[in-house]
Amino acid sequence: MSTDPTVADVPDANLNGKTDIKVVFTPSGRQAKVAQGTTVLQAARELGVDIDSVCGGRAMCGRCQINVGTGEFAKHGIVSGAGSLGAVTAVETRYADKRGLADGRRLSCQSVLLADAVIDVPPESQVHNQLVRKAADERQIEMDPVVRLCLVEVREPDMHEPSGDFRRLAEALAKQWPDRVSGEITCDLHILQQLQPVLREGKWHVTVALRDGCHITGIWPGLKENVVGVAIDVGSTTMSAHLCDMATGAVLASTGAMNPQIRFGEDLMSRVSYGIMNPDGPAEMTKAVIAGLQQLIDGAAEQAGMSSDDVIEIVLVGNPVMHHLLLGIDPLELGGAPFALAVDSALSLKASDLGLALNQGARAYILPCIAGHVGADAAGVVLAEAPQKTDKMTLLIDVGTNAEIVVGNRDRLLAASSPTGPAFEGAQISSGQRAAPGAIERVRIDPVTLEPRFCVIGVDQWSDEDGFDEAVKSTGITGICGSGIIEILGEMYLSGIITMDGVIDGGKALISPRIEADDRTFRYRVSDNVTVTQNDVRAIQLAKAALYAGFRLLMDKININHIDKVVLAGAFGTHIDPKYAMVLGMIPDCELENVRAAGNSAGAGARMALLNKGARAEIEQTVRNIEKIETAIEPSFQDHFVKAMAIPHKSDPYAKLSAMVPLPERILTAQDAPALEGGRRRGGRRRSS
Amino acid sequence: MSTDPTVADVPDANLNGKTDIKVVFTPSGRQAKVAQGTTVLQAARELGVDIDSVCGGRAMCGRCQINVGTGEFAKHGIVSGAGSLGAVTAVETRYADKRGLADGRRLSCQSVLLADAVIDVPPESQVHNQLVRKAADERQIEMDPVVRLCLVEVREPDMHEPSGDFRRLAEALAKQWPDRVSGEITCDLHILQQLQPVLREGKWHVTVALRDGCHITGIWPGLKENVVGVAIDVGSTTMSAHLCDMATGAVLASTGAMNPQIRFGEDLMSRVSYGIMNPDGPAEMTKAVIAGLQQLIDGAAEQAGMSSDDVIEIVLVGNPVMHHLLLGIDPLELGGAPFALAVDSALSLKASDLGLALNQGARAYILPCIAGHVGADAAGVVLAEAPQKTDKMTLLIDVGTNAEIVVGNRDRLLAASSPTGPAFEGAQISSGQRAAPGAIERVRIDPVTLEPRFCVIGVDQWSDEDGFDEAVKSTGITGICGSGIIEILGEMYLSGIITMDGVIDGGKALISPRIEADDRTFRYRVSDNVTVTQNDVRAIQLAKAALYAGFRLLMDKININHIDKVVLAGAFGTHIDPKYAMVLGMIPDCELENVRAAGNSAGAGARMALLNKGARAEIEQTVRNIEKIETAIEPSFQDHFVKAMAIPHKSDPYAKLSAMVPLPERILTAQDAPALEGGRRRGGRRRSS
């Protein structure tokens, strides 16, 4: 036992019976007395200090690099320095010559402890290193991938004790990697087919990809240093992929592409219809999306200087229709009530069963679906945003054709989808368009003159700045994108052009010629060829009312009136200004600083599931516990919906918003109520007054 | 509690709180008091009485038929009769009209207990019915197949509680078949792909094939009554298949075919060589054998009036080279020391991974290999003959190009292969040929005149009987088959034509012109065109000495001098006369009645593994415990081998044999010893004296 009071709280490990050297590992702080001559890696392993290795201590992989601390460490009562370790060995020199080794770095598997030492394990040498998801993000991914590479030295066959090569491989793996093996070792058939030549080519040294601690999915002769995984978000419009090193978590390549299913229908329901109208439709769409994924993955692998044969694991998220089509399941049942999924649980299957040509043993993990309209993409958002881990009442919104909504905290989580329709994406808007050069994306309206100033995608200046007219010639002003329509409506409301009930006020034509008569209603002219019509306002009102009614319904179920934190997932959240979203009542009243755009959270969730197997168990459990609400059969939905047609809301005072942004006086016109009847119908709808 | 002293030893189950009716099941003897109105099936299930069902009590499958006992059952103190059960129901009448129901038979799921009853469960209604393997066999197969059919009624999807169809299927299965479900239910991807249309086609009633209590491999709308499995022995020359009903175990069809790999080489080593000489050779041979298996299975299914889509499980056995080629593993390493198998453990894989087109979810189970020369076929023999279950010291011999030898009992089992070469199959014998019409298969030699009489395959008469000359015209006398060569050598020895050391005695030419000079040795003429030469005798001596040395070595390891029971597996054992085998010293000295020809034991073992999942666990465990001996590196092998060249043996007195069969005086010629040096070499060997 140590008599040093500064370390009395950490029990000493007495390794090998000798107690002559004290070693302290940072940052873990673990320490022990070990026998002189112990290697640093050996000491670390016995102490449970987290040092990575693929080659298992053979000075081949270079993963186990450490630094030795220099100086007096009063806290630990020791002096440490280069001399604490044995001299750099020939093996290390050979490694350094061949692969490079930064100044002061040693291979822990080759460095022998000669005197008291402080050993620093840099993050890149830690197995479970924390991966910062992105600068702005408070949360990290801890590396604990489901697949690990292990170099194994296999005993040669021996007539005295005949046993199959696979048995000896499994025995070697269990013996040489006891920390990683968690059960009886099994393997794919293709491993058995390659086993004998690979073992002999590698001179009885092979690297295996060990999945889940018990199943061999890949094998290579000698040392294989890197395999990669790909996290993929299969959206109905676009697909994006992040290719990651399965050991370090580093994103080596990111690629995106249009979903090739678009040729079968722009939105989900038109694809479901295509499947219904064409007997081979579902199979065609499956084939198309798989071919698209193959290209996406091949492209990412090429970008990273690797081949798709290096891809050992992929994770997929997508909405229910994409999920089913990926799996070769006809999405027919998702096209109508009761919107039954074929399968909702998470799935692990061979990537080859999906028709993907990656490493022969590559597996695909698909996140669970939450409900018929709340898919594996929403599960990805939940995993990434982790409302189940906080006390804060959280609202997650992912807007597509439907809005997927999750509300709750660690005590309770509810999910629903709300039929917002495609208006938020610029569809059903007279001047609406996709976010592309020429589209108006930011707008401000002078409350006195009602003159607009705006930004166009592809042009740096605002429309009232010098050089705008010149610059905009290359793009033109072609329409308004989704975030632009939110902003312009917010500004129209704040400047009094539209009333609280969403009527474009014809009286304002007296102030500005930009208010123009349009049949029996009015429109607001933003530029020569871009106007906002009364129908446009109605379309957004319907969409935002559906969204509000959705989250409000879930809040009612939990019996809360306040949300602590709003997370806007997906491209929608990234581009809109939370202030205008709140002015329109698309999100609940709260401090603006608590509204966050999370970007592609679904993809981030996929990446977490790729790099940490615990994340899979976590999201599977979380999804099982989520209460699934079907808005269509909730009687109060319609009531919430009607009230939410007003801007920001008929009865909700939006007090916090009012404190930040001066809102116009609340006046509801009498004629408004009938206009809202049956308001959940979409498209081609005319104002009744 | 019962006050009847005759049943006091069986605790009464008090079902449903009422105790008004006593029911006794035969043959199990289980009994209880149950509430009036309980169905017989329900009572049986609660008592753990073994009654089969696919439909789960819906009067669809007819598997649960029972008879009600009639009369006074003094032992049980009750009177039973037709009136003990409720009247035949309309449902039963409908079943009987549609499917037939033997007189007195009732469906236990529809029969309600009204009064005390003795219920007899006939064997065909028992889940675990005993299947008699064959008339002559003392052992039976208990049915406990790895795959069971279960009809399930699935709850329809509901918007109030959205869940995937698969989740509801799994829940229904667990609830409706609690005895059969043993873990979390999973399924193949193709099940998910079919699930929704099949559920709807079956109006929410589907039959699933449940494998191992937890994995769904097949699904059909409504009631699916039968699936089949196939047990296949893949020999290097012939392949045989038995197609069995997976519920009853009945063999519905048996087929056999040549192994199409024969075109790549007659024997195993020539196929290994073909693989070495031709880069695509192993793949070609795999393709050939798989195509052959597909035909074999298709043929068997057709014979049984079914389709290969009904095949849900297959079991394969074969020697190590066949085993590897089946799996798509190059058998290269099996061609030379140390004869390393790629894999020795048992394997379960998708039949489609092997390239077989059966039911999409069909699995292939492959028995474990014991060692590099002792294959899954030998494991099948062990499973079928079960030396591990007896106290009797057992010797199993399966002769092919190598003899696979297992010796031991429940305490200890050893296995080895011995290089007998192909002489026993008639190869390397001057007049040797395959067992085919025209081949001499039985021989007797008059000890005085040295005149032979013999039987020819395809001819009913012996050669000295009336009508033989006429009958043999159609076949000719074309050679000697394997069993014929054993018999003729045994008779030549018994009649003094060959000496104990295997020399054809030229002195006997004085007695009979059938002893002819042949270069510096002699030969024995059997017919105009068939002779036995000195080289033929030597070839058999070498083979039988290797066989003897093999089992003797294993007996030495166990330290025994006596074998209680000899089992000759395979075609070899079926055709040879144990007496002559013992005269030649091919099997150890023992009572002839304890020598048994077991026929295709390997195939029988495959069938056991097909029909009883416990048999799989048993053979896997047994094979792990078998001590594997490599004869090539055992110093005593050579010594045993040399001594075993004599007939029946140089030092082993074969006392039991002598008591049954008068053996010639034991004289060894001096010249014999040098002739035996290096005796393990094969082929083209000349006598040195």
Automatic annotation (TrEMBL), chains A, B:
Residues 21-125 form the 2Fe-2S ferredoxin-type domain. The keyword Oxidoreductase applies. Keywords: Oxidoreductase. SUPFAM superfamilies: 2Fe-2S ferredoxin-like. It is an enzyme of class 1 (oxidoreductase). Residues 670-689 are annotated as: Disordered. Its EC number is 1.6.5.-. GO terms for molecular function: iron-sulfur cluster binding; oxidoreductase activity. InterPro entries: 2Fe-2S_ferredoxin-like_sf, 2Fe-2S_ferredoxin-type, Beta-grasp_dom_sf, Corrinoid_activation_enz, Raco-like_middle, Raco-like_middle_sf, RACo_C, RACo_linker. It holds the Pfam family Raco_middle. The keyword NADP does not apply. This is Probable electron transfer protein. It comes from Puniceispirillum marinum (strain IMCC1322).
